[in-house]
Amino acid sequence: MPVSTIDVHHHWMPKEHFDNLERYLHPGERAVRDGEIVRIYRGETMVFALNGPAHYLTERRLRDMDAANVDMAVLSTGLWHEWATIEMARAINNGLADLQREHPNRIVGLVHAPAFEEGAIEELERGIKELDLRGVYMQVHSQGWYLHEKEYYPFYRKVAELGVPIVVHGNTLPADSRLCAHHESLVGFARTLDLSVAAVGLMASGIFEELPNLRFVFAQFAGGLFAHTGRLAEARGNRPGIPPPTSPLFAGRLLFDTAPANWGQNEVTCAIENLGVDHIVFGSDYPIRPDLMLRARRLVDGMRTTSVEREKVCCGNAMSYFTRRVK
Question: For 131-159, b where at least 16 C-beta lie within 10 A, e where not — what string?
Fold first, then answer.
C-alpha cells in the first residue's frame, strides 16, 4: 500500500496572473510565449519558466497528484512571488483559500505577504485567521535583505505568534547576480547557493532562541547544505561553530524538502545522514516540468531507509508542521 504523501514544494498561480503576465513585469523584463510554455527574461537572462495551464488548472493538478500517489499539496506561487505587490498577494491568498475550501483533503495554501510592503502584517494575519491558510511563503531575500537580517524580525514575531511555519523558496537571482551573467545554467545553481546562505544565516542568527515557535521549511535541501554541516560546525578561533540541523536547538524547527528530483541516491543518503531523517520532507517543484512529481516519487521510493523513516519523509514530518490546521 502506498505511503501517504504530502508534497510541500508545489506551485500555483491565479489564471488571471498567467494570462496577463506582461501587465505585472518590471521594466527591462519580457515574457516569451511558446505554446503552453512561457519564459520571463530579465534583459538577456531567462529567470522564470512556467509550464502553462498546469499552474492553474486544478483538474490537471489533482490528476497528476493521483498518478504520483501524492495525497496533499502545499501550494505557493514559487518565483512569481517576486513580482507580487500587496494587492496581488491578497488576490493570491483569496484564490488559495478558495482552492483549500474546495479540496480540503488535497490542498494546503500558504499566505503570501511581501514582508516590507505596507499592510504585510495585516495581510499575514488575515490569511491565517480569516482565510484559514496554514503557513507563510517567503523567498530568501527581498529588497536586498536576506532572511537572517533584523529587518524581518517584526514579520517573524507575528508568524511565531500565529503558530504557523514559513516555507522558504529561492529567488529568480541572488541579490548580487553577477555570477549568473556568465552562463544561463548558473541561474539555477545560484539559487541553490542562495538557499544555503539563507538557511545558515538563520541558524547562526539567534532567531531560534528568541522565537521558540518559529519554524522553517527550506526548499531543495537548502541547496547543498547537507554537504557542509561538518565544516559549519567547526569552531573558528574563540567562536563556536554553527550546530548542525540535527542539534536539539533545531528539533521541530527546520525541515528540508527533496525537490527537485535531480539528486542522486548518494546525495539523498548524505542529506538524510547529515540533516537527519526527522528534518526531511517530500517536495517535487511541480509543475515547472510535468514529470517532476513522478520523478520525486521514484527518488523517495529509492531512498535507503526503513519504511518508518520513509513515512516520516513522505508524510509524518510535514504533518507535524501543518497539523495545527490540516484536518
Answer: bebbbbbbbbbbeeebbbeeebeebbbbb
Q: Which of 92, 95, 148, 89 is nearest to 118 (CA)?
A: 89
Strands (E) located in the chain: 6-11, 29-34, 37-42, 45-50, 72-76, 107-109, 111-112, 136-139, 141-142, 145-146, 166-169, 216-218, 254-257, 280-281
Give the orientation angle of helix 292-301 with respect to helix 58-67, to 10 degrees: 30
pLDDT tens figures, 275-314: 999 999 999 999 998 899 999 999 999 998 999 999 999 9
CA distance 9 to 137: 11
Annotate 185-220 with three-state secondary structure.
Answer: CHHHHHHHHHHHHHHHHHHHHCHHHHCCCCCEEEHH
pLDDT value at residue 45: 87
Torsion over CA of 254, 142, 41 and 28, rounded to 10 degrees? 180
Whose cell is 524581518? That residue is 152
Say yes or no to pLDDT of 3 above 70: no
| C-alpha to C-alpha distance for 82 and 174, rounded to whole angstroms | 12
Q: Is the pLDDT of residue 73 over 60?
A: yes
Q: What is the mean pLDDT of residues 61-76?
A: 96
- Vertex 86, ends 191 and 95: CA angle to 5°? 85
- 294 burial level (CB within 10 Å; 0-12, 13-18, 19+): middle
Segment 197-235, tens digit of pLDDT: 899 999 999 999 999 999 999 999 999 899 988 888 886
Dihedral sign computed on CA atoms, order 38, 86, 82, 271? negative
With 0-12 CB in 10 A as exposed, 13-18 as middle and 19+ as buried, what is 256?
Answer: buried
